[in-house]
UniProtKB/TrEMBL annotation:
This is ABC transporter ATP-binding protein. Gene3D superfamilies: P-loop containing nucleotide triphosphate hydrolases (3.40.50.300). It comes from Streptomyces endophyticus. SMART domains: AAA. The keyword Phosphoprotein does not apply. Keywords: ATP-binding, Nucleotide-binding, Transport.
Length: 282
């Protein structure tokens, strides 16, 4: 355990928006070969933390290192360094084809490459031929090669999410950050995404994933960190996190699938009823 290489190290990351501290002094690391989960109620600061990791935001305090080097707070430089991500709200190029979206992903390693890809200049056309084989491999990997010429906007939602993953993989990252990859998916698609994440890890890419689907998180992750009101409340294995009363308490009032809180809510309600006597307005 101690000689495992650390891929990502976030230290003391704080992000303030005016008077609001969305992320407060968070330390988190991801090691080679790991799938790490980041969970927490809505508004806990998970996406903001991702934005700090990927250079979309400059953290108010703290720093983020990738493979021992401090990452600059500029997203294209973060991508170039080897960190790729998907977004909670899908960000595909809707009017490009499936294949073109993956090809664009291959050229986001540099700012110049991205513009060249978007404007489809001669440099891009040449690079495109060289990249197409790799892009098709990635489409095979996610199971969408048969839709290479479909427009991204015509794909069902679950396939759009998968395409976003392929586009992120196209930058050949060493670490992939997924922000709610199964949002809007049916149970079959969610299970398939679980398998996909394992396959990504098996390719040697470390994964940090934000998810609301607790079954997904607890099945998949080697380690889970819980963010509540911007602070890391608990971190540990799935067993440790599931058994922690503070985590259960943090989620009370925001029920989620597969969570153990149904009985906990009953217990709290029973205790309140006992304590509060007749205050039983519905
Ligand atoms: N750009 C921003 N400006 C101001 N407040 C923000 C911004 N981004 C996020 N927030 C606030 O930060 C908090 C955490 O949000 P977010 O990171 O999206 O939570 P989560 O992803 O855990 O649901 C929320 O209160 C949200 O309103
Ligand atoms: Mg979010």
């Amino acid at each position: 355990m101690t000689n495992t290489a650390t891929v990502l190290q976030a230290s003391g990351v704080t992000m303030r928006f005016g008077g609001l501290t969305a992320v407060r002094d968070v330390d988190l690391h991801v090691d080679q070969g790991e799938i790490v989960g980041l969970i927490g109620p809505n508004g806990a600061g998970k996406t903001t933390f991702f934005n700090c990791l990927t250079g979309l935001y400059t953290p108010t305090e703290g720093q983020v290192s990738y493979q021992g080097k401090v990452l600059p707070a500029q997203s294209h430089l973060v991508t170039q360094a080897g960190v790729a991500r998907t977004f909670q709200n899908i960000r595909l190029f809707a009017n490009m084809t499936v294949l073109e979206n993956v090809l664009v992903g291959r050229h986001t390693r540099t700012k110049e490459g991205l513009w060249s890809a978007l404007l489809r200049g001669p440099g891009f056309k040449k690079a495109e031929r060289g990249s197409e084989e790799r892009a098709m491999e990635l489409l095979d990997f996610i199971g969408l090669s048969h839709k290479r010429d479909h427009l991204a906007r015509n794909l069902p939602y679950g396939e759009q999410r998968k395409l976003e993953i392929a586009r992120a993989l196209a930058s050949e990252p060493g670490l992939l950050l997924l922000d709610e990859p199964t949002a809007g998916m049916n149970p079959q698609e969610t299970r398939a995404t679980e398998e996909l994440v394992v396959a990504i890890r098996d390719k040697g890419i470390a994964v940090l994933v934000i998810e609301h689907d607790m079954r997904f998180i607890f099945n998949l992750c080697d380690r889970v960190a819980v963010l509540v009101q911007g602070e890391k409340l608990v971190e540990g294995t799935s067993e440790v996190v599931q058994g922690d009363e503070r985590v259960i308490a943090a989620y009370l009032g925001t029920p989620f699938e597969g969570a153990p809180e149904d009985t906990a809510i009953e217990e709290v309600q029973a205790a309140e009823a006992q304590a509060g006597g007749e205050g039983n307005d519905q």
